[in-house]
Specification:
The complex is a heterodimer.
Chain A: H1 7-31, H2 34-44
Chain B: H1 2-53, H2 69-72, H3 93-122, H4 124-127, H5 130-187, E1 191-192, E2 201-202, E3 206-208, E4 214-215, E5 227-229, E6 235-237, H6 240-243, E7 248-250, E8 266-273, H7 280-297, E9 301-304, H8 307-322, E10 338-344, E11 347-355, H9 364-367, E12 379-383, H10 389-392, H11 400-405, H12 413-426, E13 435-440, H13 443-446, H14 461-470, H15 474-483, E14 486-491, H16 511-520
Parallel strand pairs in B: 8-11, 8-12, 12-13, 13-14
Antiparallel strand pairs in B: 1-2, 3-4, 3-7, 5-6, 9-10, 10-11
The chains are: A mainly alpha, B alpha/beta.
Chain lengths: ~45, ~525
């Protein structure tokens, strides 16, 4: 196939990546909240 | 004894070491193993997914191209396979991308377990340190569970995103298809193949891309919502209304090019039937010329479409203006349609006139070679009054030359009518929904003769019918009234166009049956001058 991949393929993929990264960022934000982070550190025995 | 003591001490020391490892190493290390397992397990599917979607080297999924659509997309509801166009991301590539990411993630986890178990199996000495192995074991189990959970969550999330996109696509496709079809239905547009022997009619023509690839179904769908991308990378609109602006329409049946404007403009198909030598061709030629003049008089226009139609129209003009005799229609093959584009009252119409040689209407087998008969909006039956025995029998003696000058059709009109109509009935054609124009031709020769003493140029449909009954055509007329939804009779002289100085068609103009059938097809054209009041 010599023709380039349709731009809408890239568009859809970028949207999906953005959604994934947003979900990951949301999860990271939830984890680094002081109360959750404290729980984790306590669980690890370093808090 | 010493050996036993030594073994006992060894066991105790090993047990102590194990206990020490469990208590001081494994115990404190376990939360770290758990957290690390969760962290890696969460990140693993996400990293692989992002890598796959961004096509990072070995993570990249294979691309679904136009050459894969026949395997990857559901079959079409038509007789044709999928067209050579790129599929929409939602219907093939998305599954390939997500499937590839799952495959990569599973491979990573599998490899981790394979290597770990191989390492443990490889050396039995390693098993002596079993308490320490608990840490990587717990880490691997946690990683696996976290990876599975994250993958499920991530795929559910992407599934929701794709489902929302799918709903949007469904809405766009529905609206586009509905508007495209609705506008064309209102216009009564159809794609009529004018080529001899085909005459296929449909609402949806195929379109040929500039690269030569024929797209049989350009409508919005799995291969594009607003536009589709041909395998040559050319963009093709997904509505017939837009495609007609720049693409070549192609017949779905014979793959040959259709007239410009097919399936977009109002489409009227009018076949002319009747026995050989009845005057069908003359009626069509003079009718076209007369219709052109009449339309110009009412502010419209008529122009032939396509080189064959242009040649026929040019010949028609010459024949009508010079009064030259019409040549016999080729009976060796079915006719190609003559297409003229009419413009009247802001409405644009493609009128296809089909004129087959009379031999085709002489028996059922030959009728079957004329598929256009079955899908016409209305038909014109050409009735040669000189072929009616009651008329011909009265023309003897001094009037005999008038009969021979008329070159009457050899077949009785009733026979020709019955053969064609019976064939149409057998084909399941709903004739009762169609109008029939009966053109009693050669009026220029007929009027003034004793058998036509009751007729004059201003004869109305009812008067013509009465006269035909008097001449013994009751069976034919009763049959026509029974077969067709509406029947109107016209007295026609096709020797000339039959138009006045302004171009208006007079009472015996060959344009009259066509104007009436156009009106029955929703294309109203003023038939008579509005008298100007001082």
């Amino acid at each position: 196939m010599s023709t380039p991949i349709p731009p809408h393929y890239l568009g859809f993929r970028i949207v999906l990546v953005v959604v994934l990264l947003a979900a990951l960022a949301g999860a990271a934000w939830w984890v680094v909240r002081p109360e959750v982070l404290a729980e984790i550190l306590t669980f690890l025995g370093v808090g | 004894m010493l050996v036993a003591i030594g073994v006992l001490i060894g066991i105790v020391l090993y047990a102590f070491a194990c206990g020490f490892a469990l208590f001081w190493v494994v115990g404190p290390g376990m939360p770290f193993a758990l957290v690390a397992g969760v962290a890696v397990g969460v990140l693993l599917p996400l990293v692989v997914l992002v890598g796959t979607l961004l096509r990072v080297d070995r993570f990249a999924a294979p691309t679904v191209t136009p050459f894969d659509v026949r395997e990857r997309l559901p079959k079409t509801g038509t007789n044709f396979e999928r067209d050579g166009a790129w599929p929409n991301y939602l219907f093939a590539q998305s599954r390939t991308d997500l499937g590839t990411a799952v495959e990569h993630t599973t491979n990573v986890v599998n490899r981790m377990w394979t290597r770990t178990t191989a390492w443990v199996r490889g050396g039995s000495v390693v098993l002596l340190f079993w308490p320490l192995l608990l840490l990587p074991l717990v880490g691997a189990i946690t990683l696996t569970l976290a990876a599975v959970a994250t993958a499920i969550a991530a795929y559910a999330l992407l599934g929701v995103v794709l489902a929302v996109a799918w709903l949007g696509w469904l809405l766009v496709v529905g609206v586009l298809r509905g508007v495209d079809l609705g506008v064309r239905q209102l216009r009564r547009a159809r794609a009529t193949c004018h080529h001899a022997g085909c005459n296929h009619r449909s609402m949806l023509p195929a379109y040929r891309c500039r690269c030569g690839v024929v797209h049989h179904d350009i409508r919005a769908g799995r291969q594009g919502a607003f536009v589709r991308r041909c395998e040559c990378d050319h963009l093709i609109p997904t509505t017939v209304l837009q495609a007609a602006a720049g693409l070549v329409p192609v017949c779905q049946n014979c793959n040959r090019e259709l007239r410009v404007g097919a399936a977009v403009l109002t489409d009227v198909l009018v076949p002319v039937f009747g026995p050989a030598s009845a005057g069908k061709t003359r009626l069509v030629l003079a009718g076209m010329v007369a219709l052109g003049r009449h339309l110009r008089a009412v502010g419209g226009s008529l122009r032939p479409v396509g080189p064959e139609s242009e040649a026929t129209f040019s010949e028609a003009t010459t024949v009508v203006e010079s009064g030259r005799q019409t040549t016999k229609t080729d009976a060796s093959q079915p006719p190609a349609g003559v297409t003229v584009r009419l413009s009247v009252a802001r409405r644009k119409v493609l009128l296809h006139l089909f004129d087959a040689a009379g031999e085709f209407f002489s028996n059922r087998e030959q009728n079957s070679e004329l598929p256009f008969l079955g899908d016409a909006q209305g038909l014109v039956f050409v009735l040669d009054p000189f072929s009616v025995p009651a008329v011909a029998d009265d023309l003897h003696g001094a009037l005999a030359p008038r009969l021979s000058r008329a070159q009457p059709a050899r077949m009785h009109p009733e026979q020709s009518y019955l053969v064609t109509v019976q064939w149409l009935r057998d084909q399941g054609v709903a004739l009762t929904r169609k109008p029939l124009a009966v053109a009693v031709v050669k009026a220029d020769l007929l009027l003034g003769l004793p058998p036509a003493a009751d007729l004059n140029v201003d004869a109305e449909s009812g008067e013509i019918e009465t006269w035909l009954r008097e001449k013994g055509l009751d069976n034919l007329l009763d049959g026509a009234a029974r077969d067709f939804g509406e029947v109107r009779f016209f007295l026609v002289s096709s020797l000339e166009a039959g138009t006045d100085v302004d171009g208006w068609a007079d009472r015996t103009s060959p344009a009259r049956p066509l104007l009436w059938l156009l009106g029955r097809s929703g294309v109203a054209v003023a038939e008579q001058k509005v008298p100007v009041t001082p």
